[in-house]
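Sequence design from tokenized structure. All designs in this work follow the same two-part layout: the structure record, then the generated sequence. An example of the structure record is given first.
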């Protein structure tokens, strides 16, 4: 944490900031209750609710708002993504879970421990403690609900069948899909993104802990990008094939584009999802050893872009609009017909908001090669008109298919944002 040079802020800091570390220490000496009694510091518990230091504030993404964080938020260094199965059959318990998650997520987003740290030494601490002393690290926690929360095995599990959006259905099977149960589906999801993996893990771990008896982990996947420290200039991140990945995306500063392509709008389906968004997640293995034996020219033709600059083939600048009509002296398209760029772009009418992270999970025991690839996360207003048609084209024609395999898949409706005093999922349950 950097030193605060603003004296006014400093005094606020001194009056109100007791860090996670201080609170844990205090609790460890016999509980906050004891200290309170001994010192007469009646305000101590409210101090915990006080302002974070100005350094912390810079790294806090507000939890409350019209939309959830972690969708149009600038990508953080890390993601910890989990899919969950709901184990309770009781709707009230499910609602309670969402309420408890709301309280916890709001605290975590501010870099605070979940719940009360004054628990006595004869009970497990309410917060697991590994984020003690760490900043909020731009943590965002994004919650989604999957199709199976509404109907599973033809059962209307929570009386929510009528509220299931038409768009929230299992994705079709695409050619070449090699999906495994271990990375597929889920009733709920939590996407925790932060500039520190321990902070992201801490958030997920505590949320799962809170869900005990109501929901369990189904699958989990971490992901990374180059860190902000390694690339202060914040160039477009490179994927594990060494190419800039994330160049073309809707402009998150344009309300118009977001309303057209990302946020669910009134009239799109049930009202409860307005201001939410659909998340499609694919765990895509990348055969990096094969790629590394492929010539640079072949690699560039696969993507239809130059590796070094990220510019479309035949063009100069990374951010130039694609010139798909341009041909070389032999009369061939510069951007090949089976290239990833041409096929994913299509006619340009299906933009999705990509927020992908690389993953590296040790070795693929079946082949002895790396199990590494892309945790492809994308947000959109209507999967049937965005991800699905794009993936249909890619799955049938993309040259990239020689080097990748889709191993996991899920779709979730990411809930609208939460207003102060409200709770996640309120619009579904009320
Ligand atoms: C169905 C959606 C997509 C999947 C699945 C997908 C997988 C995937 N992509 C890369 C690498 C790159 N993708 C790039 C562009 C790009 N990809 C998609 C969609 C999917 N990609 C879109 C919509 C676009 C933008 C198209 C456009 O309008 O130009 C690029 C080029 C640079 C960029 O714009 O980001 C790269 C590189 C990998 C490695 C991969 C699976 C492992
Ligand atoms: Fe792509």
């Amino acid at each position: 944490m950097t030193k605060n040079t603003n004296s006014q802020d400093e005094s606020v800091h001194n009056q109100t900031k007791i860090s996670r570390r201080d609170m844990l220490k205090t609790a460890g000496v016999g509980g906050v209750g004891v200290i309170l009694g001994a010192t007469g510091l009646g305000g101590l518990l409210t101090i915990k609710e006080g302002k974070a230091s100005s350094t912390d504030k810079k790294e806090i993404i507000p939890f409350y708002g019209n939309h959830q964080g972690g969708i149009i938020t600038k990508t953080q260094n890390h993601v910890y993504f989990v899919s969950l199965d709901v184990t309770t059959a009781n709707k009230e318990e499910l609602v309670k879970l969402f309420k408890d998650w709301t309280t916890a997520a709001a605290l975590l987003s501010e870099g605070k421990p979940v719940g009360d740290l004054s628990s006595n030494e004869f009970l497990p601490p309410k917060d697991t403690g590994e984020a003690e002393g760490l900043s909020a690290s731009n943590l965002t926690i994004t919650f989604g609900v999957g199709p199976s929360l509404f109907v599973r095995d033809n059962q209307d599990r929570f009386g929510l069948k009528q509220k299931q959006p038409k768009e929230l259905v299992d994705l079709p099977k695409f050619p070449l899909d090699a999906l495994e149960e271990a990375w597929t589906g889920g009733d709920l999801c939590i996407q925790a993104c932060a500039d520190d993996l321990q902070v992201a893990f801490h958030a997920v771990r505590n949320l799962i802990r809170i869900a005990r008896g109501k929901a369990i982990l189904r699958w989990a996947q971490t992901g990374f990008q180059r860190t902000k420290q390694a690339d202060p200039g914040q160039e477009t991140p490179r994927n594990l094939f060494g190419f800039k990945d994330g160049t073309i995306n809707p402009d998150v500063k344009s309300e118009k584009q977001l309303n057209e392509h990302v946020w669910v709008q009134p009239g799109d389906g049930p009202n409860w999802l307005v201001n939410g968004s659909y998340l499609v997640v694919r765990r895509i293995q990348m055969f990096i050893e094969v790629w590394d034996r492929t010539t640079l020219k072949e690699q560039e033709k696969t993507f239809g872009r130059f590796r070094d600059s990220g510019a479309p083939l035949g063009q100069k600048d990374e951010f130039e609009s694609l010139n798909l009509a341009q041909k070389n002296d032999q009369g061939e398209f510069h951007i090949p017909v089976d290239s990833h760029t041409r096929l994913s772009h299509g006619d340009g009418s299906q933009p999705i908001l990509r927020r992908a992270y690389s993953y590296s999970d040790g070795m693929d025991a079946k082949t002895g090669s790396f199990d590494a690839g892309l945790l492809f996360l994308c947000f959109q207003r209507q999967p049937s008109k965005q991800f699905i048609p794009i993936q249909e084209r890619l799955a049938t024609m993309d040259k990239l298919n020689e080097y990748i395999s889709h191993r996991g898949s899920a779709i979730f409706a990411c809930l609208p944002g939460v207003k102060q005093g409200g709770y996640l999922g309120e619009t579904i349950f009320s």
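The CA atoms of residues 27 and 118 lie 5 Å apart. We note this feature because it recurs in several other targets discussed in the main text.
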